[in-house]
Amino acid sequence: MDFFARFAVPNPGPTIYASMVAIALTMVAIFVGLTYYKKWGYLWREWLTTVDHKRIGIMYLISALLMLFRGGVDAIMMRAQTAVPENTLLGAQEYNEIFTTHGVVMIIFMAMAFIMALMNFAVPLQIGARDVAFPRLNALSFWLYFFGAMLFNISFVIGGSPDSGWSSYFPLAGTEYSESVGTNYYMLALQISGLGTLITGINFITTILKMRAPGMTLMKMPMFTWSALITNLIIVFAFPVLTVALLMGTMDRLFATNFFTTSNGGMDMLWANLFWVWGHPEVYILILPAFGIYSEIISTFSRRNLYGYKSMVISMVAISVLSFLVWVHHFFTMGQGALVNSIFSITTMAIAVPTGIKIFNWLFTLRKGKIVFTTPMLYSLGFIPIFTIGGVTGVMLGMASADYQYHNTMFLVAHFHLVIIPGVVFAMIAGLFYWWPKMFGFMLNERLGKWSFWFIAISVCVTFFPMFISGLDGQARRMYTYSESTGFGIWNLISFIGAIGLAIGFALIVYNIYYSIRYSTREIPADPWDARSLEWATHSPVPEYNFAIVPEVDSTEAFWDYKKKGYKLFKGKYEPIHMPNNSGVPFLMGLVFFVWGFAFVFGMWIFAVIASIGIAACLAHRSFEKDHGRYISVEEIEKTEKDLGGAKE
Amino acid sequence: MKELFPPKQVLGFVFSIVLTVIALSVYFLDMSFELAMTILLITAFIQAAVQLVVFMHAGESKDKKSIYTTLYYGFFIALVTVFGTLLTLIWGYY
Q1: How many CA within 13 A on the CB side of residue A649?
Q2: Which of A67, A81, A340, B70 lies at 20 to 30 Å from A596 by C-alpha?
Q3: What's the complex ipTM?
């Protein structure tokens, strides 16, 4: 029994027991369901082993929605706990664990997965490619992310959740103050899924630089593809810093090294420094794809070409450089001198310039446009004012001397939620509604979609505006309770009401998906939005090979020209198409990585060695495997094209 | 003969051995710490550049421009990170 004692949760409470039961029931339900409907083979053949970028995108999407649910439940629990003074719904320790997992799950496992989902799905289609450059590697990226996320999520029922904040500052996160295995989970889960992200970065840069349709020069790429290129460039340069910092942190915790300790020559502040050297570019990794999605949607539903294409590209490149120059603004109060703070204050404010250029470009795109108020467009329009409020308060926080007042208060919490929610979450929902017909061949219900927009947009303001006030009054973030005499009660109660509104909004989206699966018509054209880029030039749902004939491109909006100006998109005839084979190795490798991470979390070295050998075996297998892919014959293409509504031209 | 001994690669090979010898000399010769580190840093960066250009063929394909752009970008980010960290945690820290 001694062996199993280590897996016990250090601070069990009713919430933990409830989730244990819930997890067990879900597992049983999935297992029984798959067996009863005889879907194991289907699951393995069509999904677990797939290397198709569209299916990988959909798997990212499902995972992201699950993680959104998990992070959302955390958020509701936090708001419920602080809704009234001296509440005893949650204990201090539970609250610490919940705000930590809320942050990590929402950033790393929800937002990142969501942008990966949309990039995976849309980018190869937008550039007229048949898949990404390294399809097998793409599957590996997904499974590393997925098993990293699972490793993180089992922490709260096995061994205890991390509790030192999503930024996990040392020395709090060191063994001295965080004795449970929680922070080990943090280090290893992020390491594993971070590897997946890094691989995606390389994969997508190569895809975009090498696999564009003939005629599509860099300056003729759709804006979402441009944003994906820049994003992946930032990923490749920022994530290695996280990898190294996590490795050093893991070494400190497991092998008693002294990188971030307060004694023996260690430097605890180095963690904060390295974390934000990655962390700030990470913010732009999240926001740039969102900007790309808004560019696509605003231009589509204003029925105009995007205003200032070139300045959009230049401002994104500028953002990508500046994003590496501002990280110190996350810890202005750590003790560095006025000179350092001034330098980073100035670079921080400089970022507002390219961002402002983009906002004005969207406004000019709208100007004189024939605006159509669809759900994706509503989210894009709602983004502009709410994001601006988040951005302006960001400039306030960026002034180093004023930051001493705002730092670590609810003001900061309000600021970054008002940036991330309209910036990232709105964009992801907008992208979800926008590309849904391309993914699944039917549209999401517009009426329910608009209801969800109004619920979410209003509730975001109701939830986070009061925090500006309570923050300025001195409410620190991450406090699990407060006394009545502070006067924070009313503001937190309003926040809680807003949080319920947000929950209703997200529930409406889930209901919308259910409703549309049941009742939405399947008789939709391939281009239901009258859109402008290449992904709409193929069928819905998209055949495995994307395009029967590789399109040839002559402008930034080749598909629009094809529709309106009689430009010929598909020249030539059907030829056999070379496609990659499916493989189970990426899935197995993810699974082995999961075991590897779990063994490291608990310092079970025998298992760690076995799992390491397993990883090496997977790599060796790939090196010696001869897999030349397969060809789809012309007859098969003709048949597919006919089934999907006839070949174009 | 030229195919067997491409002059660029042969000279590059000789040069990188020379660089290695210079770097190694730090261990055998008696010199100050500052001088030794300077020699190591300079030879290391030249060595990396030689490897990239001569043996990894950085400038020989159509992608020359994007390869060098990303290289300079990476170089810039690395310098900013290292010197920014030094500035924040040591030079500008009271």
Answers
A1: 16
A2: A67
A3: 0.84
